Amino acid sequence: MTAVHPLHAIAEQCLGRRRLRDVRAPACPERESFVPRYFFDFHDNGRLTPDDEGTECASMATVCREASITLAEIAKDILPRSGPHRLSIEVRDDANRPCLRASLTFDVSRL
Is 25 a residue whose pLDDT tops 60? Predict the structure, then answer.
C-alpha cells in the first residue's frame, strides 16, 4: 500500500468539497440535457493527484470558478505550513483535452 503524502490528503479533501458543490445545468423538460464532465487534476510541485471522478459543469465560467475556488481552498490548508510551492489545477474535458489551468506560486524570502 502506498502512503499518501499529507499535503495530497489535504488536496483530496478540498477536491471532495468541490464535488459537493457540483454545479449542474437545470434539466430541460422537452429533451434530455447534456452537461459536460470536467476533471480537475491537482499538481503540487510537479506531483500529480488526478481527478478520476470529474464534475459536471454547465459552462466554462463555472469550470473557471470551481478551479479558482478549489485552488484557493487547497492553498489555504497547505501553504502556511510549508516552504516554496507551485500549485496548479489543470482541467480537462471528458475527451481528455486540456481546457484550463489555474496556478499559484508561493515563496517567502528574507531580504
Answer: no
| 5 φ, ψ (degrees, to nearest 5) | -60, 135
Instruction: List C-alpha distances in Å: 68 to 1, 5, 44.
Output: 32, 23, 15
pLDDT of residue 74: 86
**Domain count for the chain:** 1
Q: What is the rounded distance in angstroms from the CA atom of residue 69 to the CA atom of residue 85?
A: 18
- Per the structure, the complete domain to which residue 95 belongs is given by 33-111
Cell numbers at residue 106, please? 508561493
**CA end-to-end span of the chain:** 43
The contacts of residue 91 (CB under 8 Å, 6+ apart) are 38, 39, 40, 41, 63, 67, 98, 99, 100, 101, 102
Q: Is the pLDDT of residue 12 over 70?
A: no
